[in-house]
């Protein structure tokens, strides 16, 4: 059976192995990077000024769209008069998800229209 001490010992051994592998492969990795930099004419200055590329998810069979933030609609954030009022004074404009208080009352057999505020 593995207990906490055994697992911690395994973690320590694996971390030591990982650092040894990293030390062995470090020099060859640096040489590989330098060779690619030379082949493509990349300088350290190029790397310092480079911005990380943003990943853009594409749709199958179509080109990926550029990453742009969606524009907010002109009416976003505009207050709307309440359309429904609950028994405890709760209100809902009728937009968005149905609030829990109304969902509960509908589940109990009441209708949404019975809580409509009559427009005068």
Question: What features would you highlight for this structure?
Answer:
120 residues, mainly alpha, DNA binding, cytoplasm, H-NS_C_dom_sf
* DSSP helical segment count: 3
What is the N-to-C order of secondary-structure elements (H for helix, E for strand)? HHEEH
The SS-based structural class is: mainly alpha
Gross morphology is: elongated
Please give the alpha-carbon distance between the first and last residues.
Answer: 75 Å
Assign a percent range to the helix content: 40-55%
Number of strands: 2
Q: Kindly provide the radius of gyration, computed on alpha-carbon positions and rounded to a whole number of angstroms.
A: 31 Å
Strand content: under 5%
Description:
With 120 residues, the chain is mainly alpha-helical. It contains 3 helices and 2 strands. The mean pLDDT is 83.
SSE blueprint:
Elements: H1 4-40, H2 44-49, E1 84-85, E2 91-92, H3 100-107
Antiparallel strand pairs: 1-2
Provide a quick synopsis of the model.
By secondary structure, the protein is mainly α.
